[in-house]
Write a structure and sequence with these properties.
The complex is a heterodimer of chains A (about 290) and B (about 270). In chain A, about 75% of the residues lie in helices and about 0% in strands. Chain A is built from 14 helices and no strands. Chain A is globular. The relative contact order of chain A is 0.14. Chain B has about 270 residues and is mainly α. In chain B, about 50% of the residues are buried. Classes of the chains: A mainly alpha (about 290), B mainly alpha (about 270). The interface between A and B is large, with 96 and 99 residues.
């Protein structure tokens, strides 16, 4: 039944496979290197979990701290971001649009600048500077736009006003409407936004490198340290541990992105968080990071 | 909307607004003032254009970002349109693999580049076997370029695919039936239709390549790009004022590029509609 494929098809397929190999091969290599006894000899020299165990004993605290910050960051962005997204969806005023634009600024401004700004302003507050909360503040600033935009994308695609008017005419209070109508309706946006926030917080390095102190090294800071000073097997094993945490989140993100409100499933995937209203991708394009 | 309603909305927005003002706007304003308090005074803000060593890092940063953007758009454009236009077994898996590294942090991407082109990497092994010479380029500008490609391709492919899905294949068929060759169809039909998406994705590539430094930090601290210079000024020279001024200039350039691209993308949409 199938039409014969043209030469161009095979050429383009080969090209796409090459791009895929470029992305996937180093991941596989580093995962393998993390369990190889000696990277110079290769996997024939035998496999071992020694490096993973070494990473676990030496760097366990960085993993714990990163998970702690990511979860705290999620709690903060949920409490700050979901109500904010609701307000931005309800209000059509110019002020609301301006606030929406402003909230994205921490994503557009390089993380280094934000971190320096926080340090020159709050660096003198001894207790805060050395606390993990200082890193948390940076992460909340950076991830909040993703939560807001993700929830806002879903809210903008439903007729919130009519739903709420209906409930109100039946006598529902604001609290009842918010928890009974608004939150259930933007569940998919909240899930996608939450996955994004946790993923980005776990990997954030640009700000964290300046915000952390020797007492508060996070996972990516530990990774950079291991890459710089330890043998390649240890760096690889550490990366392997990070992938074990990160990759399920990324797969869940792909899945959540595909499942966002079936009618508009294609649309939210299409754009970047830096574009206009309603075009916010719940799951794509985290800038920064690199 | 009555008064009560309005008050509720303001109360709901207030926490986010307060955090944002206290921890972002005020600190940034302070950073701006501090940028003018160094040895150079307010001319620190122009030093990036007048001092040769800052200017050279600015030029190489912009060149690197531009090269990354062009290469990423070309690669992701071809692969993205191919994946949308063809159905074959394994297509979903291929798409998933291509977009998996979407949120890898810069440091990890730096390590991926080391895996590929570092001292013990794959490329040196291959070139050694083929040409008898080990080609190691991870710890240089070329390595950084490869790292930013790695970083930008997944997200750009997603954007291109989403935009390409909205294209109407009938327009291409019409062009073909009117005698346009495949290259002509690409140039006159597909590329113009994808322009808004490409502009938006390109702006993100550019902004990321300008401001990110995790990858550079992993590869080598001697790579001469502006984020590394800022980091060095701050940590090694303890020159907070210069670091502040430079990061402000970097932020302003990045923000301006994003704004210009957004306006351009908006205009093409308007022109097309």
């Amino acid at each position: 039944m199938r039409a014969r494929r043209s030469k161009a098809f095979w050429a383009l397929l080969a090209f796409t496979l090459a791009v895929c190999a470029f992305l996937v091969v180093p991941v596989a290599m580093s995962m393998l290197a993390g369990v190889t006894r000696n990277y110079f000899v290769g996997w024939r020299g035998g496999l071992t979990l020694d490096w993973v165990i070494k990473v676990w004993t030496d760097y366990r605290h960085t993993i714990g701290l990163s998970l702690q910050i990511a979860l705290a960051c999620l709690a903060c962005t949920l409490m700050l971001g979901v109500p904010a997204a609701y307000v931005l969806a309800r209000s059509r005023s110019r002020v609301a649009r301006a606030i929406e634009e402003l909230l994205v600024m921490p994503v557009a401004v390089p993380g280094l600048a934000t971190a320096l700004a926080l340090i020159v302003t709050f660096g003198g507050w001894g207790g805060l500077r050395t606390s993990w909360v200082f890193i948390l503040i940076g992460h909340v600033l950076f991830t909040l736009p993703f939560m807001v935009r993700s929830v806002l994308a879903v809210l903008a695609s439903i007729d919130l006003r009519t739903l709420e008017e209906g409930a109100r005419s039946l006598g529902a209070s604001f609290t009842q409407r918010f928890f009974g109508i608004v939150l259930p309706n933007c569940r998919s946006g909240i899930v996608a936004g939450s996955l994004m926030v946790v993923t980005l917080s776990l990997g954030e390095f640009n700000m964290t490198l300046l915000l952390h102190t020797p007492l508060t090294p996070t996972l990516p800071v530990g990774l950079a340290d291991a890459y710089a000073s330890l043998r390649i097997e240890v760096g690889s094993a550490y990366t392997l541990v990070f992938f074990v945490i990160l990759i399920p989140l990324l797969v869940a993100l792909q899945w959540a992105g595909a499942g966002v409100s079936p009618g508009t499933a294609r649309r939210p995937r299409s754009d970047t968080p830096l574009q206009g209203r309603g075009s916010c991708a719940p799951n794509v394009n985290p800038p920064g990071g690199g | 909307m009555d008064r009560q309603d309005r008050l509720t909305l303001v109360a709901l927005l207030a926490p986010a607004a307060i955090v944002f003002i206290a921890f972002f706007l005020i600190p940034l304003a302070r950073l701006f003032v501090i940028g003018g308090t160094g040895a150079l005074g307010w001319s620190a803000y122009t030093a990036v254009f007048t001092e040769p060593r800052y200017l050279s890092s600015l030029v190489s940063t912009v060149a690197l970002a531009a090269a990354t953007t062009v290469a990423t758009l070309a690669i992701s454009g071809v692969a993205g349109v191919f994946l949308v236009r063809n159905r074959f077994r394994g297509r979903e898996v291929l798409t998933a693999l291509l977009t998996l590294p979407l949120a890898f942090p810069g440091v990890v991407i730096g390590f991926m580049v080391i895996m590929l082109a570092g001292r013990q990497g794959l490329v040196p092994e291959l070139t050694d076997a083929l040409f008898g010479e080990r080609l190691v380029f991870a710890y240089s500008m070329a390595g950084l370029f490869v790292g930013y490609l790695y970083f930008s391709i997944p997200r750009t492919i997603l954007t291109v695919m989403a935009a390409a899905e909205k294209l109407d294949p009938r327009i291409e068929e019409a062009a073909r039936s009117l005698g346009a060759g495949p290259l002509r169809v690409v140039r006159d039909v597909i590329v113009p239709a994808l322009t808004p998406a490409l502009l938006a994705a390109g702006a993100i590539c550019f902004a990321t390549a300008m401001g990110a430094f995790g990858t550079a930090f992993t590869l080598a601290t001697k790579i001469n790009v502006l984020p590394m210079v800022i980091y060095t000024e701050f940590t090694l020279q303890a020159n907070v004022a210069m670091a502040a001024a430079l990061s402000f200039v970097l932020g302003a350039i990045t923000w301006a590029v994003l704004a210009v691209a957004r306006t351009a993308a908006g205009n093409t949409v308007a022109a097309a509609g």
